[in-house]
Amino acid sequence: MRKDAAVADRTTPDEELMRALYDEHAGPLLAFVLRLVAGDRHRAEDVVQETLVRAWRNAGQLQRATGSIRPWLVTVARRIVIDGHRSRRARPQEVDATPLETMPAADVIDRALRMMTLSEALGDLSPAHREALVETYFKERTVSEAAEVLRVPAGTVRSRVFYALRSLKLSLEERGVTE
User: Fold this and answer.
1) Which fold has domain 11-90?
2) Distances from the Cα of 35 to the Cαs of 39, 43, 82, 136, in angstroms?
3) What class, spelled out in words, does domain 101-174 have in CATH?
4) How far apart are CA 151 and CA 46, in angstroms?
């Protein structure tokens, strides 16, 4: 016995009904639904599939029906299209996500806010303390290099950096920055 024949022997009456429904009605039903959904083929195929699934669920009733079941299938398909239309109208309009993609990420915003807070706190320092911090921390110079640029002794740069950091810490704490 061939494999195809063995598989055909094991088909259930429901499967036979579904094959017959599909073979006989899927093409005309798809053409009908395409007109209802303004040519949207993917949507039409989904509606036809859902219609045939509902036919399968009601296989017992359909087998007892006399005459063609195409009117039943057309009615079910039309109702599926109407329900889909109503549900899309009831839902809020979907928004395009493109503008969200252009917004900076939270970490970029957080970094910008931290930098603004730090700039304000640096503004609270005396010019001498601010210069010492800028030369040593932001320009990454050694104390000796900063002393050369600022034209002050290295000990003065160390002292200014110490007091600048202490003042900066207090200023940031006042602004609610604890890190």
Assistant:
1) Rna Polymerase Sigma Factor; Chain: A (1.10.1740)
2) 6, 11, 13, 74
3) mainly alpha
4) 79
d(CA 168, CA 125) in angstroms, rounded, equals: 7
Total-model pTM: 0.44
Q: Residue ranges per domain, the chain?
A: 11-90, 101-174
What are the E-state strand segments in 53-139? none
Structure tokens at 145: 């290099």
- pLDDT string in tens for the chain (179-residue length): 455 554 555 667 667 777 877 888 888 888 888 888 888 889 999 988 898 888 878 777 776 767 777 888 888 899 998 888 888 777 666 666 666 666 666 677 777 878 888 888 888 889 999 999 999 988 999 999 999 999 999 999 999 999 999 998 888 888 777 66
